[in-house]
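Q: What does the predicted 3D structure of All-trans-phytoene synthase look like?
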Amino acid sequence: MSGAAPPPNLDAAFADCTRLARRTGKNFYWSFLTLPADQRRDMGALYAFMRVTDDLGDDPDEPLDRRRWAIEDWRSRTEAALRGDSVDPSVAYLAAFMDVVRRRGIPVHLPLDVIDGVAADLAGPQAAPGEPRTFFETAAQRDDYCYHVAGAVGLCCLHVWGCEQLDGTAREPALACGRAFQRTNILRDLAEDAATGRVYLPAERLAQFGVEPADLLGNGLDEIRDGEAIRHRLERLLRCEVEEVRHEYDRAKPLFAHVSPHGRGVLHAMTRIYGDLLNQAEHAGIDVLRRRVRVPAWRKAAAVAGGFAERWRP
């Protein structure tokens, strides 16, 4: 008898993915509810693959070298699976996602691009917790990062939902949508990321407003250097970021014309939820450095209801 590992039980693998998405995808999972069962199941597998990828690079309990090794190993496993090699049945999330890649025609470079984006977080010298440094020098570098960790994910999603002209007129609004979502996350997590040593606003943007990375920590905000002057600079910086991200949401609007009715529903729900998160960050102003803003469950439910209505819009 062959010593090869038995094929994974795909039904069990997909069920594991759905449980992970339900447990950890506090914003994404709500939007999946607008999809028919087969697409909802596939989105759970896609989410699980992305969640595992992100967690491998972001586990604070693991030493940096160990995380770098883990993400390289995950990339090797993913490359092998994309080539058609058998998947270790113990890696249920990967087995389910590979089935989605095959059936939905997801280009093989997209999941690898996502892994490369997470690996970029681990490259080079790491700042110490509480001593933040800027991760990017320019907006172009930030946008490249947004493509890898959000835009490529969005393109995978569009293959599941059904989308026309993914290599044509739909591509730019799809990438704008990814930038909008990721930059919304960056605003929400400013203080939390700074506490771990990371600032995802470009250095050129901070310099434009005379803000230092340490100013984003939020701790002792009332006593930070320069008193009211630095508070004013921070407020101007945050307003500028919110305005730019709103423009990204506007650039993403043409995407609705390219997706299937089911895709319009989930895209509507996701855009509403993340748009509300941006609104919360805007209303919080400088307090976004003191507390993590959230979208209430009732507003998420309203976004899902709007998504169902969007599916039937002519």
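A (community wiki): The structure tokens above were generated from the sequence. Residues 8-107 form one domain. DSSP finds 13 helices and two strands in the chain.
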